[in-house]
Amino acid sequence: MKGKLEEPVISAPKLDMKMAAEVERTLSPGADGGRQFDMDDFDILDAEQGADARSLELKGHVGFDSLPDQLVNKSVSGGFCFNILCVGETGVGKSTLMDTLFNTQFEDEPAAHDVPGVHLKSKTYEIQESNVRLKLNIVYTVGFGDQINKEDSYKPIVEYIDQQFENYLQEELKIKRGLHMYHDTRVHACLYFITPTGHSLKSLDLVTMKKLDSKVNIIPIIAKADTISKNELHKFKIKIMSELVSNGVQIYQFPTDDETVAELNATMNGHLPFAVVGSTDEVKVGNKMVRARVYPWGTVQVENENHCDFVKLREMLVRTNMEDLRETTHTRHYELFRRCRLEEMGFVDDDSDNKPFSLHETYEAKRVEHLNELQRKEEEMRQMFVVRVKEKEGELKEAEKELHAKFDQLKRQHSDEKKKLEEKKKMLEEEINLFNKKKQAAMAAQQQAQQAAASATQTIPKAHKKKSRPPSRVWRLVGCWAFPPTDSHPGTPDWRHPASSDVHRRNVLQNLFPSY
Ligand SMILES: Nc1nc2c(ncn2[C@@H]2O[C@H](COP(=O)(O)OP(=O)(O)OP(=O)(O)O)[C@@H](O)[C@H]2O)c(=O)[nH]1
Ligand SMILES: [Mg+2]
């Protein structure tokens, strides 16, 4: 993407040895393991080789004085990269300021206020000014300051920064390194947007800046500075700086070791934190168009130094110290990360006997350490397994015991019930025998009664036969005996039922013999 950038302000480079060394480092950042040359290095080189090297004078022009130019040209043709991290609450003006700073429109959607946690979004743009190409990576925080519990809000930011260092380190450690092609995403500058409360820093700001200060160059800025009065802004700046100092937060200091910019940078350090206003809207003021924010009571001009510090920020961040920010990132922050990580991996510069570091020995020591650790873990797991097996065995034995006890109890219950049932069966059989006996007796009695009835019929005189007379009481009773009542004649006893036939017989006998 090509931004509609302002007039280039790149002045002809002053090519001295220091610059040459810087350019050399820019061109091959990994060639010396990330080490940067400066004048001291050349002095050391001279001191080390001085004994052998003889100074000679050239008799004519050879042409290697063009080396710095060659480096600059190569550097320019390769392009540069610069990575900015914008940390600040949702809606504080991050995107607007980036658009204002680079005088273009980066596509960025506003973030929602209800995201559950903080995360980062990053986009890379290619912009060009004159013949200088810049690969610009802008990273924004999303959801920063929106959660009720802000305890872990800084973590995703720290993780992001570390991850970019880690990626670079992994590339550096490769046998076939491609650092000249590598897209370096290490964060060079962190613009920390302070909400213009006019009071003091929030604890979230202090905690986050404290966690970041050893990893990145922090440039604190007061966002939306047009919402705060001049007096309040002055006091707010003092308050912020005193809070940063008292909490030991290290912010980026513009370098004062280069005499060409020392004075300017020293003055600018005194203006921190910059109070900025962002706007891409153009308004006619006098006879020229300026970027400004228009209010009913007046117009705030973004690039008017009486209105805000936007110009100071742009001057420091882009025009004067962009290279220093890149360099500090590499030599200080990345170096610290690299050292910690390599030490973590077991690398040291000198061993305990002050012998020089041997990669092979370190690798072997690390391998042995790793194997020992593996064996220890294996043994631990084996012991744990044995303990677990024993525990399980005990549990199984206990369960077996319980099952046996249950089985015995069921067996006892079963035999008790069997006994009871056999007794019942015996009683029932006795009852059946008794019943059968009674039944036989009843049947015998019935047969007798039938025989008696048959013989009585034979003795009845013929005359009687003709005249129908009601049977006598005895005959009625005998008939009753002979033809006992059935279920089909209710009200009369059933002779087949042993109890009923007893009752019936007793009734018959009582009718015959009242004294029975
Ligand atoms: N008063 C004032 N308003 C501003 C300023 N900068 C941006 N704004 C306004 O603030 C609102 C949010 O601005 P953005 O730039 O989208 O804020 P942001 O921090 O990128 O927001 P998120 O990406 O959603 O977190 C917009 O309405 C801007 O016009 C400023 O300097 N002063
Ligand atoms: Mg935004």
TrEMBL record:
InterPro entries assigned to the protein according to its UniProt record, in alphabetical order: G_SEPTIN_dom (IPR030379), P-loop_NTPase (IPR027417), Septin (IPR016491)
GO cellular component terms attached to this protein's record: cell division site; microtubule cytoskeleton; septin complex; septin ring
Listed SUPFAM superfamilies: P-loop containing nucleoside triphosphate hydrolases
Residue stretches making up the Septin-type G domain: 78-344
Signal peptide start and end residues: none
GO molecular function: GTP binding; GTPase activity; molecular adaptor activity
Keywords, ordered alphabetically: Coiled coil, GTP-binding, Nucleotide-binding
Keyword GTP-binding: yes
Alphabetical GO biological process terms: cytoskeleton-dependent cytokinesis; intracellular protein localization
Coiled coil: 360-445
Superkingdom assignment: Eukaryota
Family of the protein in this entry: Belongs to the TRAFAC class TrmE-Era-EngA-EngB-Septin-like GTPase superfamily. Septin GTPase family.
Name of protein: Septin-11-like isoform X1
Organism: Branchiostoma floridae (Florida lancelet)
